[in-house]
Amino acid sequence: MLIIDIVGPVFLLIAAGFLSVRFKLFPIAGIAGLVSFVNNFATPCLLFRAMLNVDFRTAFDPGFLLSFYTGAFAAFAIGFAAARYGFGRRPGDSVVVGFAAYFTNTVLIGLPIVHRAYGETALPLIFAIIGLHSPPLMSFGTIVMELARRDAVPLGRALRQAARRIATNPLLIGIALGLSANLLDVPLPKVIDDATQMMTLAVLPVALFGMGGALNQYKLRESYGQAVVASLLKLVLHPLIALLLAVFVFKLSWELTRVAVLMAAIPSGLNVYVFATFYQRAIDAAANTILIATVMAVATVSLWLVILDQLAAYWAF
Question: What would the mean pLDDT of 71-97 be, rounded to a whole number?
Fold first, then answer.
């Protein structure tokens, strides 16, 4: 019931967008404007504040972070390969499928579930993953996408074009500005602090509503198989790799292990859709993965909670 209570509002906002466009209460042409606002303004502010407020000294355990992020990158690689060679999608589309397999909904679903499961002591570990999540994964996805969609352009020219696009990417600009202000300890004027905070509040409702409206434009059945594969990679493979690394490679304490595994078991995040719409690649697969993974997570997250509870009894061995 906890999981249903958390994901319920997500589906309500998606349904509101879908039905509003379907019954012509909101123009389909307006969806592009909503997506543009989220991609170019609201999400960069969210990433800026995420980097600005990250405390790199808190709960920075290399084994803990590597357990989580190694599983994520493995899911990306397999998701990309499955889409490219199994489903025959273009390189850029395949990057989106890989992105959907490794980007976690850390805040909207991960934070409340892990906090409720393991209490206040888990919060520093949760925020360690949240704070370092979007910047490296978004940056990596952006670089791979820029190289993947070079469309037969010579590699040297493609690299120059990719560098220019990366330098002007509003998502990465938000990350860079936040990181710079954090490391240089630059005080943020109150007016900028308040304005960027207000912008971040718009990301979730606007993006979910826009995604729901956009579903009217895509035949989701055509990407159903890819979405299921990406969902299984995210919900099963990612936490499994995190568990194996935490236990057998890094030999982490149980408190660190269970948080790394459960955070890895959280479904795909909304930035998958933001990323797909920004590049206009595999938007159908991105939207479908978010929906399927979120529904499946009601069962898979519950199962992982049971598995972790049972493993805790044998941890001493």
Answer: 95
